[in-house]
Automatic annotation (TrEMBL):
Signal peptide: none
Residues covered by the DAGKc domain: 161-309
UniProt protein name: DAGKc domain-containing protein
Annotated Gene3D superfamilies: Probable inorganic polyphosphate/atp-NAD kinase, domain 1
Taxonomy of the source species: Eukaryota, Metazoa, Chordata, Craniata, Vertebrata
Biased composition (Low complexity): 25-37, 44-55
Transmembrane portions of the chain: none
Cross-referenced InterPro entries: ATP-NAD_kinase_N (IPR017438), Diacylglycerol_kinase_cat_dom (IPR001206), Lipid_Phosphate_FormReg (IPR050187), NAD/diacylglycerol_kinase_sf (IPR016064)
Residue ranges of the region described as Disordered: 1-55
Family matches, as PANTHER family: SPHINGOSINE KINASE (PTHR12358), SPHINGOSINE KINASE 2 (PTHR12358:SF40)
Amino acid sequence: MRSLEPTSPSPAEALLHGQFASWESSGNNNSSSCPDSPGGGGLSPTASPAPAPASNYALTLTHTHIHIQRLLPRPGKEARLLLPLSELVGCSCPRSPAPPLLVLYWYPPGKRRKGVSRRRQVRAYLAECRPEAERWSAAVQCLLREVPVAANTEFSRSLLPRSRRLLLLVNPFSGRGQAMQWCQTHILPMIREANISYNLIRTEHQNHARELIREIPLQEWDGIVIVSGDGLLHEVINGLMERPDWEQAIKTPVSILPCGSGNALAGSINHYAGYDMCLREPLLLNCCFLLCRGGIRPMDLVSVTTSPPPSKNSHSASARRLFSFLSVAWGFVSDVDIE
């Protein structure tokens, strides 16, 4: 959360305004604080919070922030907080019999030794009734999904587009063999918090992803997510371009979540998004955050056609075409070294 010194938003800026009670467990505002957390873990829906001093908050939602003002106990230090929607990945209203909670999930950047790393933060607020919690949850999700809204909008789940559907391709052997572990601990919790549905497939051998992408019905998916390094993305790109419907297939959004030994494209995307240079888990969290926010940008490809290999039956040989998204290299360097 961010301290807020400026004045509160004007009535013209406010989309919603309401009062909520605090909901905390053992003084922890992370994933274990909230029942039915999409990220996994947490209290059971019928559990009660640990005894804590009663706190009441006034929440105001604008197009860019959630303004949080503590009313009780008496306002003092850190009584007014500001949550930028740009750092929010999702929200939820757990189903009954859980209390009528508004649960917010966000990943603010924080300084660490090796680059900038996002740290998962969760805060839950108890509404007076379930319809009020559901109204706030729908309003926040509308803003995150860029649904046009105004102060007179009647917020409900009917305004929301359907949940995005992603196909996750994971190479369990990529990098240092940590892809599945990082997928379970970092990627899947954030995707669930963003209300995204997914299907996960582990690749089993070289060119498995290439073969799969050539055949699957792409209309079932809103995007393909590579949980590996640049090599698996190379397979997917070439699989898309080898399809009979390649002109439409290559328009399918493709994302990379860096879990390999070579993550150059993920590093470039991180730089393009304006984030500080980082590696390993901080880079993965940044890329996963960008995926959940849903931004799509075009990217050029390089087309390379090789000459057919010389042979006695040269009439039967054919040129080979492949596509690259980073660079192209061949064995010319070794010839220079030898000579």
